[in-house]
Amino acid sequence: MTPTFAALPRHPFDDDKLHEECGVFGIFRHPEAAAHTALGLHALQHRGQESVGIVTNDGIQFHSHRALGHVGDNFNSVKVIESLKGDASVGHVRYSTQGESILRNVQPIFADFSFGGLALAHNGNLTNAVTLRRELVNEGSLFQSTMDTEVINHLIARALGKSVIDRIIDALKQCEGAYSLVALTKDALIGVRDPLGVRPLLIGRLDGAFILASESVALDILNAELVRDVAPGELVVIDAEGLKSYQPFPPARRRFCVFEYVYFARPDSTVEGISVYEARKRIGRELAREAPAPVDIVVPVPDSGVPAAIGFAAEAGLPFELGIIRNHYVGRTFIEPTDQIRHFGVKLKHNANRNTLTGKRVVLVDDSIVRGTTSTKIVDLVRNAGATEVHMRIASPPTTHSCFYGVDTPSRDKLLASKHDVASMARFIGVDSLAFLSLDGLYHAMGEKGRDPSAPRYCDACFSGDYPIALTDHNDSSTPTQLSLLAEFA
């Protein structure tokens, strides 16, 4: 039997990275809404590769196409795009942080309410979703998926308020966590960010039509104009009269996810007014100042380590060399068919540029270390290519804590930095030296004087353990775990 998409194993290299959350896109009053949404989602593909969905509205009814897999595999025919009628659309690419990767969990999710239809797409994670779901089920709610996003739908269904906006606000006031939402009704496109603005969402314009998207690259592909970011805690409503802004939540100090700049966002994006590419180069420069290396060349671990390595090399006055070449034609679901070739491992995706590495002292620059298993293989690859010394510099602090805000991270006991100091991590990886950027150094690179422990500018919980939003489900021992919940309701 042919396995489903969800059954396919991830490539071992991808298992040693923090996985992107999701990407959302919406457009209102454009005659090519579905096609533009597909293009926007294609630009956001890096934020989620497990599933994709688009819902449109033609003023009479909603139309939907959802599937497992990539955007290009599912929205590559005129027939599919033409079936998505209407001039308003929302779309979603997903990496599952809550719920299995199965068709019933593909977003946007759609439901008919007393006020009409609503399509909802969500990037982030509700930290009290299990608690809320248990309460809703006990009160008679029937769930069709295992996603925390559906909890929001049920809260909207029972919310007080005359308008759809009032009901969405009432529902979200019961939610804890990090989220950016786009929603489509018959008459409006709605966008909202959590009060701390942990997850990104921005506003664009194209030919008079408004766009909502997770990153600016989704606007670039359409030649659309970037207007501004949706502010933390802001709810925007786009309808026939234009854009209206609401501030339904009490003011809170913003805590945007700093790891967006380290790894998640595409380097050609502008997020929260900051160029991701330039931020990563500054991070590399700061790393070179903090942790210089006695080497001949600077080599990035492709592709995420490239901008930081450029900054490191420039600051250190060392040659930047592509000592590792990535094979871009190995998918993240590559199946290694036999045990006999399984040992090739990382070489399926990376190959050493032997002529560049032989006889050289090398510093490898990467964005982060999660489990450390891939770093070990990369180091072996470089040594076997003839490098005389291999050093490693990491363009972020040690990842010591799990994320509960929409990023799929291993449990804390599987994070290498949570169990080992830097010296033992260096021995595990097999490098001559290892150093991480300090937390203050990361803040310096982002234009801050340093990290103010009483009022940090960013969410940096994966590095500091300082979680700015309550972890109700995680901390409440009486709340069933996500795994047991899925077993109960799957």
Secondary structure elements and pairings:
Layout: E1 22-28, H1 33-43, E2 51-57, E3 62-68, H2 71-74, H3 78-83, E4 88-94, E5 109-113, E6 116-126, H4 129-138, H5 149-158, H6 164-172, E7 177-184, E8 189-193, E9 202-206, E10 209-213, H7 217-220, E11 225-229, E12 235-239, E13 242-246, E14 256-257, H8 259-264, E15 270-271, E16 274-275, H9 276-290, E17 297-300, H10 306-316, E18 324-326, H11 339-342, E19 350-352, H12 354-357, E20 361-366, H13 373-384, E21 389-394, H14 416-419, H15 422-429, E22 433-436, H16 439-445, E23 458-459, H17 461-464, H18 472-475, H19 482-489
Parallel strand pairs: 14-23, 17-20, 20-21, 21-22
Antiparallel strand pairs: 1-4, 1-10, 2-3, 2-4, 5-6, 6-7, 7-8, 8-12, 9-10, 9-11, 12-13, 15-16, 18-19
Fold and architecture overview:
The protein is an alpha+beta fold. The protein folds into two domains: 15-255, Glutamine Phosphoribosylpyrophosphate, subunit 1, domain 1 (4-Layer Sandwich), CATH 3.60.20.10; 274-464, 3-Layer(aba) Sandwich (Rossmann fold). Helix content is 29%, strand content 24%. It is built from 19 helices and 23 strands. It has a seven-stranded antiparallel sheet with strand order 3-2-4-1-10-9-11. A six-stranded antiparallel sheet has the order 5-6-7-8-12-13, covered by helices on one side. Strand 20, helix 13 and strand 21 (389-394) form a beta-alpha-beta unit. The longest helix is centred in the middle third of the chain and has 15 residues, at 276-290. It is globular. The two termini are 22 Å apart.
